[in-house]
Amino acid sequence: MDNDDPEALSALIGAIYDAALDAAVWPDALGRSAKYLAGVGALLFTKDATTRNFALHHADARLDPQYVKLYAEKYSKIDPSTSAHYFADIGEPVSMIDFGPIDEFRATRIYREWAQPQGLVDFLTVSIDKNATTVAMYGLFRHERQGLVDDVARRRTRLIAPHIRRAILIGRAIDLKAAQAESFADAFDRLSSSMLFIDSTGRIVHANAAAHKVLAQGNVLRAVPGGRITSNDPNLGEALRKIFEDAGKGDRALGIQGIAFPIIARNGENYVGHILPLTSGARTRTGSAFAAAAVLLVQKAELATPSAPEVLAKTFKLTPTELRVLLAVSEFGGVAEIADSFGISETTVKFHLKSLFDKTGARRQTELVKLLAGFTTPLAS
To answer: Is the same domain home to 209 and 134?
Structure first.
């Protein structure tokens, strides 16, 4: 597994991009990714920073749905990796060993009651997107047959993570199945996001109503004679031309350069663009119908807002373990329950509680719960 297989990587990226236009492809794409990363199953999910609820969006068909349901309903609340997920940098893979010694994880209830019965020994995750309340992630399970996550798996995850992010962001904006070009065009024209079909020279071959409005304003994008699209951002002109050209050559040629590229509007506002190639995989049906090489999505950039637990941890300089205990206080309350869930001694829990009291100024656990609630309420300043 030391050397990457270019053909396998190319096929995987193609499947990921096909999923952007047809969500039914995600289980297959996730299965391919698990094979590429030497895992037994992969999934796309979100975790809520306020409630710590788990939501499954797409999963490899090989994952046992009963165990997934059990995690969502019970074990997501006591997962020791949950708090660390809020701090994960987008695109950077992390595994259980990044959260602490693996022996500590093996002492937890979630390992004893959920992971070990399935033969699972590690879980690799990479943050795809996050806002003030949720973090969206790709996750890969490693079985005892494959062993713990290694450097090869991390490197390969960094290769595919940007493509998963692009597919999810564009799929979220489109939210339709591209089975027929005619129905695609109808739905495309009703989208609120600015989207344009373009050829490899950057010429617009179709644009939806929102995009026509943006072009008419001329603040972010404009069309020059011949119908070629360009930006008012002087730093983007040549780069945009190359992005369009490479999009016409397929997924591997474009690589990651068309993922979330910044656009500065004429009035100084910040926008972000995404390019989805239409010259590979099942997307060629849509591309050929419009003689297009790619879809360009342009949206106004949103400020990255840290999650409430992240803000709280930074405010009081809490360690990841202290944050875990604080969140557990809100969920379980009792020291014995927290110790049992995390597989640590009650003395250790009390040690971390004392540190929380010292750092936050709280005097009892009920005050810690109120403090957490103050950071998670939408009305908190």
So the answer is: no
The confidence score (pLDDT) of residue 191 equals 65
SS3 (DSSP) at 80: coil
In the chain, the largest separation of any two C-alpha atoms, in whole Å, equals 73
302-307 own/partner pairs: CB under 8 Å, 24+ apart:
302/131, 304/130, 304/131, 305/131, 305/132, 306/132, 307/49, 307/86, 307/130, 307/131, 307/132, 307/133, 307/134, 307/135
Amino acid at 316: F
Task: Give the mean pLDDT of 123-147.
Answer: 88
Cα–Cα distance, 130 to 263 (Å, whole number):
21
CB 323 within 8 A of CB 313: yes
Distance CA 217, CA 325 (A): 52
CA-CA distance, 16 to 281, in Å (whole number)?
A: 10
Domain shared by 39 and 127, yes or no: yes
Residue 22 and residue 155 in one domain = yes
Q: Same domain for 203 and 273?
A: yes
- Backbone torsions φ then ψ of 254, nearest 5 degrees: -70, -40
Domain residue limits at 220: 181-300
Please determine, for residue 10, whether its predicted confidence score (pLDDT) is greater than 90: no
98, 334, 362, 369 from 312: Cα distances, Å: 21, 21, 14, 12
Query: Number of folded domains in the chain?
Result: 3
Tokens of 153: 């798996």
CA 108: distance to chain centroid?
26
pTM for the predicted model, two decimal places: 0.67
Write the pLDDT tens digit of every residue in 16-44.
Answer: 988 887 888 899 999 999 999 999 999 99
Count of Cβ atoms closer than 10 Å to residue 67 Cβ: 17
Helix (H) or strand (E) holding 140: strand 134-143
- Asked whether residue 141 falls in the same domain as residue 15, the answer is yes
Q: How far is CA 82 from CA 98, 102, 143, 310, in A?
A: 12, 16, 20, 12
Q: How confident is the model at residue 183 (pLDDT cuts 50, 70, 90)?
A: low
